[in-house]
Amino acid sequence: MSNYWRIVFNSAMIIERTLRFLWKEFIYGGHFQALGAASIVFVSAFFLDIKISWDILFITYMLLYPVYLYNRYKEIETDYLTNPGRTEYLKTYIKGGAMVLIAAISIFLIGSLIYFSNLKSTVFVLLLLVFGFLYTDIFKRLTRKAPLFKNFYVSSFFALLVIFPIIYYSPPLTKDLVLSALIFATFVFLNAFVMQILLDLKDLESDKKGGLLTVPTIWGRENTFRILKIFSLLAVVPIPIIFSFYFTLFPKIISMLVLTVPFNYFCFQLAKKHNYFGYILMGGMFLLWPVLILLGKILW
C-alpha cells in the first residue's frame, strides 16, 4: 500500500471512530434527551405566544444534561442489566471524572443564569436542578412503596418546563395565558408519562431487582404494551383537538402533534421486537414536536 492510500485509509478510520464516538455520546451521554427538554420550552413558548431567544433553550439544555449524566453515573452498575451497551460506553470515560464534569456544567449553568436571566428564573432552574439530582438518590426509591411514583415525578418535571418561558420573560399574566399554560403542561405531563412507561420496559429487569413498582413490573411486559396503545391515544389526541377546534385556546396547528401517535406506535413495535432503537427514539420524543409544528406552518 502506497503512502497516499495509507494516509487515506487512516484518515477514514479516524473519521469513522470520531463519528461513532459522537453518535454514542449524543445518545448515551444524555444530549438527545436534554435537547428534547429544550424542545418542550420551544413549543410551549410558541403556543403561549411568547417570543424567545436562543439563551433560554441553551439554559434548558444545560439544566437537563447534568441531571441525565448524574443519573447514569450513579446507576452505571445496575444499568448494565438492561443497557450493557450504554454502560460499557460510559465506563470508558465517565467513571473517573463524572462528578467533576457534572460540577463544572452546573457551575457553568449558574453563570449562564446570572448573565442571561433574572432572579426568578435562576431560583426556578436551580430548584429543578436540585430536584433532578435528588430523583436518583431519593425520590426514585419511593417507587418501592408508591406505585408509579417515579413516572409522576419525571412527568411533572417535564410539565414544569412549560411555565419556564413565563418566568424567564415575565409577560403580562392574563387569564388565557395561565389557562393555556396549565392545559399545555397537562398535555406535556401525559405524553411524558407515556414515554416513561415505555422506558420502564427497557429497565424491567433492573427495576424488578430494585423492587420498583412500575407499570411493567406490576402488570408485565405484554399488558404494558396494551396499556401503552390505549394511553397514548388518550394522552395525545383529546387536548390538541378539543382546545383548538372547540375552545380555540390554541391555534389549529397544535393538531399536528396528533401525529405523535403513529410515532409512538412505531416505537412500541420496535420495543416489542426487542429492538433497542425503539427506546432511543422514544427518549427523544419531544424533539419531534418542533418538527411537526414547523411542518404545520409550511402546510397550513
Helices and strands in order:
Elements: H1 3-28, H2 31-47, H3 54-74, H4 84-91, H5 94-116, H6 119-137, H7 149-160, H8 164-169, H9 175-202, H10 204-210, H11 215-219, H12 221-236, H13 238-246, H14 260-272, H15 277-283, H16 288-299
Helix pairs in contact: 2-3, 2-16, 3-5, 3-6, 5-6, 7-9, 9-12, 12-14, 14-15
Write a brief caption for the model.
Helices cover 76% and strands 0% of the residues. By secondary structure, the chain is mostly helical.
Protein described:
The chain is mostly helical. It has one domain (19-299): Farnesyl Diphosphate Synthase, CATH 1.10.600. Helix content is 76%, strand content 0%. The protein contains 16 helices and no strands. It has helices at residues 3-28, 31-47, 54-74, 84-91, 94-116, 119-137, 149-160, 164-169, 175-202, 204-210, 215-219, 221-236, 238-246, 260-272, 277-283, 288-299. α3 packs antiparallel against α5. The longest helix has 28 residues, at 175-202. The chain is globular, with a radius of gyration of 20 Å. The mean pLDDT is 88.
